[in-house]
Amino acid sequence: MSKLICPHCGTSTSFSPIMLKGRGVLAEDLDSDQIHYREVALPAFIDEVYMIVQRPCYAILACQDCGTWFVAAEHYGEWTAVYPIPHKPTAEEVPEPIRGELEEANLCFAIEAYIGSLLVCKTALIAMQRQQEVSNLKELKDKGIISKGLYKQADEVRLWANMVGHEDSPEAVTKEDCEQLLTYLEALLNAVYVEPKRLAKLAQKREKLKKK
Questions:
Q1: Residue that finishes a domain, picked among 43, 59, 83
Q2: Residue 1: predicted pLDDT
Q3: Cys-Cys with 140: which of 57, 78, 145, 167 at CB 3.0–4.6 Å?
Q4: Which domain holds residue 68?
Q5: How far, in Å, CA of 197 to CA of 79, rounded?
Q6: Which residues pair with 19 in a beta bridge?
Q7: 111 with 206, same domain?
Q8: For residue 169, how many other CB atoms are within 10 A of its CB?
Q9: Are residues 108 and 206 in the same domain?
Q10: pLDDT in tens, 130-185
Q11: Are residues 38 and 102 in the same domain?
Q12: Which DSSP string corresponds to 76-98?
């Protein structure tokens, strides 16, 4: 189980079994090898998971790094987190509501709702423009906040989101399309919010070290 990624903190660490399916057997009463042959006792609010993953072996686990609980499923010898749905976290430097919108776009991507993911990407773009007090992406480029390359990438996200939002029956957006566009949006937000703050912190630290 050490190869599992915690869906809460995103780290790969050791995990402690909490409960196994059947008769509410406590994990502490079993050897680690037995976990592979028992199913997990799942609360009613995630019963639907059974229909999605064809009843693999389940375990409720606790991450030894952050201490939170999550549900993992074993299928053909491989364990993966299934609840909460794992998705890519957003850098803390990105402000709200933009941060929450990017996380929602990544969550849509994780459940293969690619059109929904792109529509939320557009919402994040609009929120960023308001926060930066500009009316469009071109103004960010003209002010020197983003490069010409980043402007083209961000504008492609906008154009795709407009297409899927306004076409009556848009063609299916592939996983690869959505993943690339999400990468463009993340690069834009990194340039606008993340890297300037991290650079400023490094400069402040360097100045403090010089004074010492």
A1: 83
A2: 45
A3: 145
A4: 15-83
A5: 37
A6: 26, 60
A7: yes
A8: 4
A9: yes
A10: 999 999 999 999 999 999 999 999 999 999 999 998 876 667 789 999 999 999 99
A11: no
A12: TTEEEEEESPP-PPPPTTSPTTH
Within 8 A by CB and 6+ apart from 48, the residues are none
How many domains does one find in the chain? 2
Regions of the chain with pLDDT less than 70: 1-3, 8-10, 13-56, 75-78, 82-88, 168-170
Helix (H/G/I), strand (E/B), else coil: 70: strand
Identify whether 122 is part of a domain: yes
On whether residue 5 sits in a domain, the answer given is: no
Residue 84 preceded by cis peptide, ω within 30:
yes
Cα separation, 69 vs 178, in Å, equals: 30
User: What is each CA distance from 83 to 48, 49, 55, 60, 108, in whole angstroms?
Assistant: 11, 8, 14, 9, 14
Within a domain: 132:
yes
pTM beyond 0.85, yes or no = no
Nearest residue to 118 via CA among 176, 161, 165, 168: 161
Q: Are 175 and 114 part of one and the same domain?
A: yes
Q: What residues form DSSP beta bridges with 5?
A: 12
Q: How far apart are CA 18 and CA 15, in angstroms?
A: 9
